[in-house]
Write a structure and sequence with these properties.
Helices cover 57% and strands 5% of the residues. It contains 10 helices and 4 strands, in the order αββαααααααααββ. A two-stranded antiparallel sheet has the order 1-2. Helix 4 crosses helix 9. The longest helix has 27 residues. The radius of gyration is 23 Å and the shape is globular. The model has no long low-confidence stretch (mean pLDDT 88).
Length: 296
C-alpha cells in the first residue's frame, strides 16, 4: 500500500543527499561523496556520544562519575576519530550501493543499542566484564545462562553472513579481512592476563564486519556501533590492558608519581645508584588471585 511504502521510504531513504554537500556556491569543499559520508558518520558519532552521555546520567544509570567532557576531549578524541576511520573503511560505509548510515532505521537502531548497553546495567547479574579473570572468578550462573540464550541468535546471524558471502562469492575476501583485523587488533592484547574486552571494543571490532548490503547486516552494524558509542560516552575509551597499560606508560615516561612505588638500589661494585620501580603484580585468573582488589 502507499502508506507502507511511505513508511519504508521514511525508514530507509537517506536523510541527506551526499552530493548536496560537496560544493558551496559552485566551489568544492570536500573531495567527493565519500568524504561527505565519512564526515556525516563522524558527526553522528559525536551527536550519539553527546546524547548518550547526558541521557545515561539523567536516568541515573551506571557510569564513570570521574569521566567528563574534559577527559573525553583530552584523552580519547584522537583515538575515537581513528576508530571511526577504520570502521568506515572496513564497514563499507563508503560504498555507492548503499546509503551510508544517514537514514532513520540505521540511526534509530544505533541509538537503541547505545541506550540498551546502559539499561542492561540495571540488572545486577549483568554488571560484569568480559575478561578471563571476571568470567572465571565472578560471573554468576544467571549470566552464563543469559549468554547461553544469546548463542543461538548469534549463530543465526553468523550463518546469514556466511551464506551471503558464499552466494556473492566474497567469502575469501571476508576471511582475509577478518583474519587480518583479528591478528592486528585482538591477538596482541588478548595474550595478556590484563586484557579486558570492553564493549566499545567489541562493538567496534564486530560491527565493522557486519558490512553486507542487506538491511539485516547493516542494522546489526548499527547496533554494534551503538555499543561503541555507549562505551565511549559512559566510561571513556578505556585501554584494553587496563592498569598494565597505565603502568607501562607511566614507567616509560618516568612519571614522578611513580616515586611512591620505587626504591633506590646501590651497586656495591661502583657505588652507583639506580631507581627501581616495583614490578606490577599480574592478576591470575586461574586461581583468582589479585593484589589490592585489582581484577580486570
Amino acid at each position: 500500500s502507499s502508506s507502507s511504502s511511505r513508511f519504508t521510504k521514511f525508514l530507509f531513504d537517506p536523510i541527506c543527499n551526499d552530493e548536496d554537500f560537496t560544493t558551496v556556491w559552485g566551489h568544492e569543499i570536500v573531495d567527493g561523496t565519500t568524504s561527505v559520508r565519512f564526515l556525516k558518520f563522524l558527526l553522528w558519532t559525536g551527536i550519539g556520544i553527546v546524547l548518550t552521555f547526558h541521557i545515561v546520567r539523567a536516568m541515573g544509570w551506571e557510569h564513570d562519575s570521574s569521566f567528563g567532557w574534559r577527559e573525553l576531549m583530552l584523552y580519547d578524541l584522537t583515538n575515537v576519530i581513528l576508530d571511526v576511520g577504520v570502521f568506515f573503511v572496513v564497514g563499507r560505509l563508503y560504498k555507492d550501493d548503499r546509503s551510508g548510515m544517514d537514514y532513520v532505521a540505521w540511526i534509530g537502531v544505533c541509538f537503541l543499542g547505545s541506550l540498551y548497553a546502559s539499561y542492561s546495567s540495571t540488572f545486577h547479574f549483568l554488571k560484569h566484564s568480559v575478561s578471563l579473570y571476571d568470567m572465571h572468578c565472578h560471573w554468576p550462573c544467571a549470566l552464563w545462562v543469559y549468554v547461553g540464550c544469546l548463542i543461538p541468535g548469534i549463530g543465526v546471524l553468523i550463518g546469514l553472513h556466511v551464506r551471503f558471502a558464499v552466494q556473492t562469492r566474497v567469502l575469501l575476501i571476508k576471511l582475509v579481512e577478518l583474519t587480518l583485523t583479528v591478528l592486528l587488533f585482538l591477538v596482541p592484547v588478548a595474550s595478556s592476563p590484563n586484557f579486558h574486552f570492553h564493549h566499545w571494543f567489541a562493538g567496534w571490532l564486530v560491527g565493522m564486519h557486519c558490512n553486507f548490503s542487506p538491511q539485516w547486516s547493516r542494522l546489526l552494524q548499527a547496533w554494534c556501533w551503538g555499543q561503541y558509542i555507549n562505551g565511549v560516552a559512559v566510561w571513556g575509551r578505556d585501554p584494553l590492558l587496563g592498569c598494565a597499560y597505565a603502568y607501562y606508560a607511566s614507567f616509560n615516561q618516568h612519571c614522578n608519581f611513580l616515586e611512591c612505588y620505587s626504591h633506590v638500589e646501590v651497586n656495591p661494585e661502583d657505588n652507583t645508584t639506580e631507581v627501581v620501580v616495583n614490578e606490577m603484580l599480574v592478576p591470575n585468573w586461574r586461581n583468582c588471585s589479585a593484589v589490592d582488589n585489582y581484577a580486570p
